[in-house]
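Every protein is a chain of amino acids, and every chain bends into a shape of its own. Below is the pair of lines this work produces for a single protein:
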Amino acid sequence: MVQFHEGEIAVQVKAGTRGVAEELKRGISDRLDLEFGRNEFFRDLRMVYLAAVDRYGDVWVSEASGEKGFFQAPDPNTLQVDVSNDYLLHGDPVREIFEEQSDTQVGVLAIDFDKRRRYRTNGQFLATKSTNGKVAVRVAEAFPNCPKYIQRRSIVGKRDTSGNQVLSGVQLPKEAIAMIQKADTLVFGTRNPRTGADVNLRGGNPGFVRVPSSSEIMWPEYRGNGMFNSSGNLEVDHHAGLLFIDYEGSGNILQVVGEASSDWDPQETFEGSTRAIRFRVKKFRLYTGSEPYEWKLNAFSDYNPVVAGHDQTGDRAGPFPVQVKLVKVVKESDSVSTFRFLAPRPVKFLPGQYASFDFQIAELGDFTRTWTLSETANSTTRGDVTLEISVKRKPGGVISNWLHDKAELGMEVTLTGIGGDCEPLAATPMLFLLIRNGTRRIDRLAAN
């Protein structure tokens, strides 16, 4: 089993998520979970993000792109990238790393923005093993990530990149600063002693990333899964890299490298976070009009906290967070109880989706927990004002035991979002095998 390194453990202890992280660690594997249709997910992608370390120790993050099928997994231990066409920008430092370093460690972030799905892989880029225009990544770590803070966007066409230019320097120019200040997504590369380069995504409403000066960038670290892979890496190695893309606008791509650190008590105030990342700029590369695809923004994540001083109307407002009231508790067995919550307005959800809650408990602290919804909405189009979760009492589980022992009718908690695409009401007709087990019935799956 994969073990956390000392930096990850240090941050987990400080944040109070050590137990949760140990539970989630079981989802990290040294092979790809292809039996769950992962390769179909890979083959549908038109772009992935890569992080690699150059000979100076700098972490560069890049977007690799191609037609469907350019990225896939021929077996559970290997990712394959088709490089027969230009899959990376000319002059991109990551391209140079792959050409100069025969077997370099690489972080891979596979993400489907439209479906809000992402999958992280760390491994070794086998540049010398290229055959038929393909190169391979030998998998060292692989695991899915939750969809929080991912904005829904889709490709609507190809962009003309023929007139692009490249700007570079050591301090951010005004064009780069303006691009960062309106960004809703950044890709964050770090490095660690276990697998080398690592890469993940940070998202929020426009304005969540701040630029205090031409040599500094900062952003809030919103609540995540509690494993703190990126923040843990910064505890042992401050080298980091950023990638910003103006998806719907100019198509500009901005790479920034430097050093980053966690600020546990920032003077600045961030809604939804008490911790921030401070990034010190060493150098940048700005590629004008170089994003190969034209994108359409469909929706901001419901999990995005409000950003002070920025317009949060329209698509950015979202239905969450919302306060819900506990109105009923049904004891299903000695270890399982069902909790029904009442919302002030209909909440849309589908069978198989999950709900995330924020619990602020005076004697325990602030906790975020997620459970699969165990009832069907009255209407799959309008939603329902009630929603249920069935919670199993878990030995050592802080919130599961608190709910069973301390929850009182009338109490309010914060519903922070509904998510998940593991639901049966898909556009493509399918056959379903329903299996009943345990203490909870399978609710009807009819679409009203």
Remarks:
- Residues 36 and 422 are 11 Å apart (CA to CA).
- The two ends are 45 Å apart (CA to CA).
- Residues 439-448 have pLDDT under 50 and may be disordered.
